[in-house]
Amino acid sequence: MFFVKKLWIALLMLPVLLGLSTCTTVKRVPDYASQLVDAVAEGETQRGYALAAERNALIARGVIREKPVSYDELLLLARLIDAETGESAYGEEYRLCVGEVALNRVASPEFPDTLEAVVFQQGQYPCAQEPEFADLRPSRACAEAALSLLLGERRLAPQVVYQSSRQIGPAFVRFYDRRLGYTYFCESVYPELYC
To answer: How confident is the model at residue 76 (pLDDT cuts 50, 70, 90)?
Structure first.
Protein backbone atom coordinates (compact mmCIF):
# COMPACT_ATOMS: atom_id res chain seq x y z
CA MET A 1 0.00 0.00 0.00
CA PHE A 2 2.84 2.36 0.90
CA PHE A 3 4.55 1.58 -2.44
CA VAL A 4 1.35 2.28 -4.45
CA LYS A 5 0.89 5.62 -2.70
CA LYS A 6 4.50 6.65 -3.50
CA LEU A 7 4.02 5.56 -7.13
CA TRP A 8 0.90 7.75 -7.48
CA ILE A 9 2.69 10.74 -5.97
CA ALA A 10 5.63 10.20 -8.31
CA LEU A 11 3.32 9.98 -11.34
CA LEU A 12 1.51 13.15 -10.32
CA MET A 13 4.83 14.98 -9.82
CA LEU A 14 6.40 13.75 -13.07
CA PRO A 15 5.09 16.60 -15.25
CA VAL A 16 6.28 19.18 -12.71
CA LEU A 17 9.72 17.55 -12.49
CA LEU A 18 9.97 17.53 -16.27
CA GLY A 19 9.03 21.21 -16.43
CA LEU A 20 5.61 20.57 -17.86
CA SER A 21 2.53 22.27 -16.59
CA THR A 22 -0.22 20.03 -15.28
CA CYS A 23 -2.75 22.72 -16.17
CA THR A 24 -2.24 23.86 -19.71
CA THR A 25 -3.95 26.99 -20.85
CA VAL A 26 -4.86 27.07 -24.50
CA LYS A 27 -5.05 30.60 -25.80
CA ARG A 28 -7.97 30.79 -28.16
CA VAL A 29 -7.74 32.82 -31.32
CA PRO A 30 -10.60 35.35 -31.46
CA ASP A 31 -13.32 34.92 -34.06
CA TYR A 32 -11.97 37.64 -36.30
CA ALA A 33 -14.44 36.95 -39.12
CA SER A 34 -17.45 37.66 -36.94
CA GLN A 35 -15.78 40.68 -35.33
CA LEU A 36 -14.81 42.18 -38.70
CA VAL A 37 -18.37 41.73 -39.98
CA ASP A 38 -19.68 43.40 -36.82
CA ALA A 39 -17.28 46.34 -37.26
CA VAL A 40 -18.48 46.88 -40.85
CA ALA A 41 -22.19 46.53 -40.01
CA GLU A 42 -21.93 48.75 -36.92
CA GLY A 43 -19.84 51.45 -38.60
CA GLU A 44 -16.89 50.95 -36.24
CA THR A 45 -14.12 51.73 -38.71
CA GLN A 46 -11.27 52.21 -36.22
CA ARG A 47 -12.11 48.93 -34.52
CA GLY A 48 -12.21 47.28 -37.95
CA TYR A 49 -8.72 48.55 -38.82
CA ALA A 50 -7.36 47.30 -35.48
CA LEU A 51 -8.98 43.87 -35.89
CA ALA A 52 -7.71 43.47 -39.46
CA ALA A 53 -4.18 44.50 -38.43
CA GLU A 54 -4.20 42.08 -35.48
CA ARG A 55 -5.57 39.23 -37.62
CA ASN A 56 -3.11 39.88 -40.46
CA ALA A 57 -0.20 39.92 -37.98
CA LEU A 58 -1.26 36.47 -36.69
CA ILE A 59 -1.46 35.24 -40.28
CA ALA A 60 2.07 36.53 -40.97
CA ARG A 61 3.33 34.65 -37.90
CA GLY A 62 1.59 31.44 -39.01
CA VAL A 63 -0.84 31.33 -36.07
CA ILE A 64 -3.84 31.59 -38.41
CA ARG A 65 -3.86 29.87 -41.78
CA GLU A 66 -6.18 32.11 -43.78
CA LYS A 67 -5.88 34.82 -46.38
CA PRO A 68 -5.12 38.32 -45.08
CA VAL A 69 -7.91 40.86 -45.56
CA SER A 70 -7.69 44.61 -45.95
CA TYR A 71 -10.37 46.37 -43.89
CA ASP A 72 -10.63 49.07 -46.58
CA GLU A 73 -11.41 46.42 -49.22
CA LEU A 74 -13.86 44.64 -46.93
CA LEU A 75 -15.76 47.84 -46.23
CA LEU A 76 -15.72 48.95 -49.88
CA LEU A 77 -16.90 45.58 -51.20
CA ALA A 78 -19.63 45.38 -48.53
CA ARG A 79 -20.82 48.89 -49.46
CA LEU A 80 -20.89 47.98 -53.15
CA ILE A 81 -22.85 44.78 -52.50
CA ASP A 82 -25.32 46.67 -50.29
CA ALA A 83 -25.77 49.52 -52.77
CA GLU A 84 -26.22 47.14 -55.72
CA THR A 85 -28.53 44.64 -54.03
CA GLY A 86 -30.61 46.97 -51.87
CA GLU A 87 -33.75 45.34 -50.55
CA SER A 88 -33.64 42.66 -53.23
CA ALA A 89 -35.35 39.39 -52.49
CA TYR A 90 -32.60 37.51 -54.33
CA GLY A 91 -30.73 36.63 -51.15
CA GLU A 92 -27.23 35.44 -50.36
CA GLU A 93 -26.46 33.90 -53.75
CA TYR A 94 -27.20 37.19 -55.48
CA ARG A 95 -25.07 39.19 -52.99
CA LEU A 96 -22.14 36.84 -53.58
CA CYS A 97 -22.47 37.15 -57.37
CA VAL A 98 -22.58 40.96 -57.21
CA GLY A 99 -19.38 41.08 -55.16
CA GLU A 100 -17.68 38.41 -57.21
CA VAL A 101 -18.17 40.34 -60.46
CA ALA A 102 -16.25 43.24 -58.91
CA LEU A 103 -13.43 40.91 -57.79
CA ASN A 104 -13.39 39.20 -61.19
CA ARG A 105 -12.93 42.62 -62.74
CA VAL A 106 -9.93 43.30 -60.48
CA ALA A 107 -8.33 40.08 -61.75
CA SER A 108 -9.34 40.74 -65.39
CA PRO A 109 -7.07 42.34 -67.99
CA GLU A 110 -10.11 44.32 -69.21
CA PHE A 111 -10.57 46.40 -66.06
CA PRO A 112 -8.48 48.29 -63.47
CA ASP A 113 -6.43 46.15 -61.11
CA THR A 114 -7.62 47.43 -57.72
CA LEU A 115 -11.02 47.12 -56.11
CA GLU A 116 -11.21 50.86 -55.53
CA ALA A 117 -10.47 51.61 -59.20
CA VAL A 118 -13.05 49.04 -60.34
CA VAL A 119 -15.79 50.35 -58.03
CA PHE A 120 -15.19 54.00 -58.94
CA GLN A 121 -14.52 53.46 -62.65
CA GLN A 122 -16.59 56.00 -64.57
CA GLY A 123 -19.85 54.56 -65.91
CA GLN A 124 -19.56 51.16 -64.22
CA TYR A 125 -21.21 51.38 -60.79
CA PRO A 126 -23.43 54.51 -60.68
CA CYS A 127 -24.28 53.83 -57.02
CA ALA A 128 -20.61 54.44 -56.11
CA GLN A 129 -20.80 57.94 -57.64
CA GLU A 130 -23.61 58.94 -55.29
CA PRO A 131 -22.55 61.13 -52.31
CA GLU A 132 -24.19 58.82 -49.76
CA PHE A 133 -22.08 55.85 -50.89
CA ALA A 134 -19.12 57.01 -48.77
CA ASP A 135 -21.27 56.93 -45.61
CA LEU A 136 -23.27 53.81 -46.40
CA ARG A 137 -23.36 51.36 -43.50
CA PRO A 138 -23.71 47.93 -45.11
CA SER A 139 -26.01 45.30 -43.67
CA ARG A 140 -24.51 42.36 -41.82
CA ALA A 141 -25.51 40.06 -44.70
CA CYS A 142 -23.59 42.22 -47.19
CA ALA A 143 -20.54 42.37 -44.90
CA GLU A 144 -20.63 38.56 -44.53
CA ALA A 145 -20.81 38.12 -48.31
CA ALA A 146 -17.90 40.53 -48.83
CA LEU A 147 -15.73 38.75 -46.27
CA SER A 148 -16.54 35.31 -47.72
CA LEU A 149 -15.48 36.53 -51.15
CA LEU A 150 -12.28 38.13 -49.90
CA LEU A 151 -11.44 34.85 -48.16
CA GLY A 152 -11.81 33.02 -51.47
CA GLU A 153 -15.42 31.84 -51.86
CA ARG A 154 -16.44 31.74 -55.52
CA ARG A 155 -19.66 30.95 -57.41
CA LEU A 156 -18.89 32.33 -60.87
CA ALA A 157 -16.28 31.65 -63.52
CA PRO A 158 -13.37 34.17 -63.66
CA GLN A 159 -14.59 35.53 -67.02
CA VAL A 160 -17.96 36.65 -65.54
CA VAL A 161 -17.32 40.39 -65.45
CA TYR A 162 -20.73 41.91 -66.21
CA GLN A 163 -23.88 42.38 -64.15
CA SER A 164 -26.77 44.01 -65.97
CA SER A 165 -30.52 44.12 -66.47
CA ARG A 166 -29.86 43.13 -70.08
CA GLN A 167 -27.71 40.35 -71.43
CA ILE A 168 -24.33 41.73 -72.55
CA GLY A 169 -22.39 38.55 -73.30
CA PRO A 170 -23.02 34.88 -72.68
CA ALA A 171 -25.12 34.64 -69.49
CA PHE A 172 -23.49 32.54 -66.79
CA VAL A 173 -26.41 32.92 -64.37
CA ARG A 174 -29.52 35.09 -64.11
CA PHE A 175 -31.86 36.08 -61.32
CA TYR A 176 -35.48 37.14 -61.55
CA ASP A 177 -37.40 39.45 -59.25
CA ARG A 178 -41.07 40.38 -59.90
CA ARG A 179 -40.32 44.01 -59.13
CA LEU A 180 -36.92 44.35 -60.78
CA GLY A 181 -37.12 41.83 -63.60
CA TYR A 182 -34.02 39.89 -64.68
CA THR A 183 -30.43 40.52 -63.65
CA TYR A 184 -27.82 38.79 -65.78
CA PHE A 185 -24.29 37.88 -64.78
CA CYS A 186 -22.48 37.63 -68.08
CA GLU A 187 -19.13 36.47 -69.37
CA SER A 188 -16.72 38.76 -71.14
CA VAL A 189 -17.16 39.19 -74.86
CA TYR A 190 -13.41 38.45 -75.11
CA PRO A 191 -13.20 34.83 -73.87
CA GLU A 192 -9.68 34.44 -75.27
CA LEU A 193 -8.39 36.70 -72.47
CA TYR A 194 -9.40 34.11 -69.87
CA CYS A 195 -7.80 30.94 -71.25
So the answer is: very high
Dump pLDDT digits (tens) for 83-136. 999 766 678 999 999 999 999 999 999 999 999 999 999 999 999 999 999 999
**What are the backbone angles phi and psi of residue 194, rounded to the nearest 5°?**
-115, 15
CA–CA gap between residue 163 and residue 173 (Å, rounded): 10
Cα(123)–Cα(55) distance, integer angstroms: 35
Q: Which amino acid appears at position 50 of this protein?
A: A
| DSSP labels, 124-185 | T-HHHHSGGGGG----HHHHHHHHHHHTT---S-TTEEEEESS--SSEEEEEEETTTEEEEE
Altogether, the residues listed in the chain come to a count of 195
What's this model's pTM, rounded to 2 decimal places?
0.84
Residue 60 has pLDDT above 50, yes or no: yes
Neighbours of 128 (CB within 10 A): 19
Query: What are the CA-CA distances from residue 71 to residues 28, 34, 41, 95, 137 (Å)?
Result: 22, 13, 12, 19, 14
For residue 37, the surrounding DSSP H or E stretch is helix 32-41
